[in-house]
Amino acid sequence: MPPRRTTIQHRVAEEDELYRRIEQIIDTRLVFRLDVVLDHLIERVGALMEARQEVDQRHGRVPNPTADLEDVEYDSYSEGNATLFSEEG
């Protein structure tokens, strides 16, 4: 019976190695995809910031990143739903 036990142990070791390699391949691909997505995001944010700066310079304004934001207020009767109110000055 020892040869059969050795065969089973060998198969278990092969399966463990296969799972380890599969996990390594998946991790490598996920990291690569994350890097690609992050690179595209950085490029888009940079382009948007440049475009905004050009618009602000043409109008002689100082950029204010919070100028277009809306305040979020919660109504106690809204059961957790947010009601948006914009401040007009």
- Counted by DSSP, the helix tally is 1
* Separation of the first and last Cα atoms: 87 Å
Q: Based on Cα principal axes, name the global outline.
A: rod-shaped
* Major sheet: arrangement of strands: 1-2
Largest sheet: 2 strands, antiparallel
Fraction in beta strands: 5-15%
Helical fraction equals 55-70%
Whole-angstrom Rg: 28 Å
Instruction: Give me the strand/helix succession.
Output: HEE
Your description of this structure?
By secondary structure, this protein is mainly alpha-helical. The protein contains 1 helix and 2 strands, in the order αββ. The mean pLDDT is 77.
Write a compact overview of the structure shown.
The chain is mainly α. The protein has one helix at residues 2-58, and strands at residues 71-74, 82-85.
Please tag this protein with its features.
two-stranded antiparallel ribbon; mainly alpha
In terms of topology, how is this protein built?
Layout: H1 2-58, E1 71-74, E2 82-85
Antiparallel strand pairs: 1-2
